[in-house]
Amino acid sequence: MVNYCAIIGCNRTGGKDKVSFFRLPAVITNQGEKTQELSEKRRRLWISRISRSDLQPASYPFIRVCSDHFVNGKPSPLYPEGATDWTPTLNLGHPKCNTEATPTPDRENRLKGRQQKRKTVEAAQSLISLFNDIQDNTETDSKLESDEPEFDCKTCSFEEERVSACGTKTTRASQTDLGCSTLKAMESELNRRTVETMTLKDIVAKTNISEKLSKMMTKK
To answer: Which residue ranges are recorded for the region named Disordered (predicted)?
Structure first.
């Protein structure tokens, strides 16, 4: 079957011209509601950019758009939304105004930057939440331990019974610092997590300020 480009005024034909042809983007239904809605939106935009009055749903499986109508010669992936070649943008053959601004490489880079920043903030917030949970559990354990009789781990000892060869019982005091080692390790870990939390909170605060300034500059 010979492929023909559906864009108005484009005479590219498969087998004759050295171009690639691409189908309408499929609607993805097995990767969550967000992905499905985004893929449906993209498909509608493709049909709008093709802008042919003779297009019917029955003909959608046979529609092809050639590589001449993409900045990089092929469509971009579904994510991130609004990438340079998210829809056909070049030589569309009609003067109809687009409902959305034509994406540019600079805009695509800004979109990727915002998405990466958002992921960083979400990761930081998750770590902070995890640390807070650990800290709450540690405080609860400390309160429970405070209700028990106090002891000095440096001088704590236990009496070990020994039976001599003659049958008499003897005792021997032996020192243990297992409690101290455990407490010191817990204190060191808590200090480390405290430093990490402060650093993450600082990142989140700076990111939020940066996004607010960016929004203000965009509005201006």
So the answer is: 95-114
Region at 145 (left for phi over 0; alpha for psi -120 to 50; beta for the rest) = alpha
Q: Count of CB atoms within 10 A of residue 44's CB?
A: 13
Assign 213 a pLDDT band (cuts: 50, 70, 90): low
Asked if residue 169 belongs to a domain, the reply is: no
Please give the tally of structural domains in the chain.
2
Domain annotation covers residue 15: no
Which of 139, 132, 84, 130 is closest to 110 using CA atoms? 84
Dihedral sign for Cα 140, 143, 148, 153, please: positive
Average pLDDT value for the chain: 75
Alpha carbon distances (Å) from 162 to 155, 165, 174, 175, 209: 21, 10, 13, 16, 69
pTM surpassing 0.90? no
Residues 41 and 114 in one domain: no
What pLDDT does 26 receive? 94
Q: Which domain holds residue 189?
A: 105-136+182-220
Reading the block at residue 207, the tokens are: 């990111």
In a domain, 172, yes or no: no
